[in-house]
Amino acid sequence: MKPPIPILIMCIVAIAATACLHPSGTEDEMIECNLTLVGDCTRVLSYDEIRAIPSCEGRGGFFTTVGIVNGPFECRGVSLEELCDLVGGINATDTVWIRASDGYLMVFNRDQVRGDFITYNPVTMREVPHIEPEVMLMYEQDGGLLSMDTGGPLRVAIVSRGELLTEGHYWVQWVDTIEIMK
Predict the structure, then answer these.
(1) Are 128 and 120 in contact (CB under 8 A)?
(2) Is the pLDDT of residue 175 over 80?
(3) Most buried residue, 48, 71, 127, 179, by CB count within 10 Å?
(4) Are 53 and 37 in contact (CB under 8 A)?
(5) Which domains does the chain carry?
(6) pLDDT band at 2, cuts 50/70/90?
(7) What is the predicted pLDDT for the residue at 153?
(8) Rounded to an integer, what is the distance from CA 131 to the centroid of its chain?
(9) Which tens digit of pLDDT belongs to each residue from 64-73?
(10) Which of the four pLDDT bands, split at 50, 70 and 90, describes residue 132?
């Protein structure tokens, strides 16, 4: 017996929607995922090209709107500001629109791209000052590649040399486009 056409269509759509996301990933697997950068010009980077850019590291975590704490994690990725520089950079009046493959959109101003967020202590949940914060496009968490379940293969992370938490809606998962809006 053949499955009904709507079920086949749903399966095809599900496979297409996850085409950019690797399942669990190992270093040896090739990850088919592109990041589109839009600014003064448009540039499309493959996953391997992103990983070839000098990386940054830090610790960071987030909490959800219902108070569930995730992390802090050891994070590795590429500075968001450095990615913006690849397509002309940002100035004081620009915003950076970060889009996910599921349609989610988060807008950052230049100060946020440079790490200006309210940060919280992971234990007490009290507001604390941050130590050299950085916003990155993360591709590794706790020494392993990001999976679809952890927001990968590319996810926004807000990190520091110390441990910090930020609000979870900034940690955009499944990032596929970064656009500088003048």
Answers:
(1) yes
(2) yes
(3) 71
(4) no
(5) 5-181 (3.90.420.10)
(6) low
(7) 97
(8) 20
(9) 999 899 999 9
(10) confident
Query: Read out DSSP for the chain?
Result: -PPPHHHHHHHHHHHHHTTTS-SS--TTSPP--EEEEESSSEEEEEHHHHHHSPPEEEEEEEE-TT--EEEEEEEEEEEHHHHHHTTT---TT-EEEEEETTS-EEEEEHHHHTT---EE-TTT--EE--SS-EEEEEEEETTEE--GGGT-SSEEEEEBSS--EEEGGGS--SEEEEEEE-
Question: Cis link prior to 153 (omega < 30° from 0)?
Answer: yes
State CA 168 to chain mean position distance: 11
Structure-token pair, residue 156? 């926004």
Q: How far apart are CA 106 and CA 99, in angstroms?
A: 7
For tokens 């990190």, what's the residue? 159
Q: Which two tokens stand for residue 68?
A: 């569930």
Pair 101, 152: CB distance under 8 Å = no
Q: How far is CA 124 from CA 77, 86, 135, 148, in A?
A: 27, 39, 23, 30
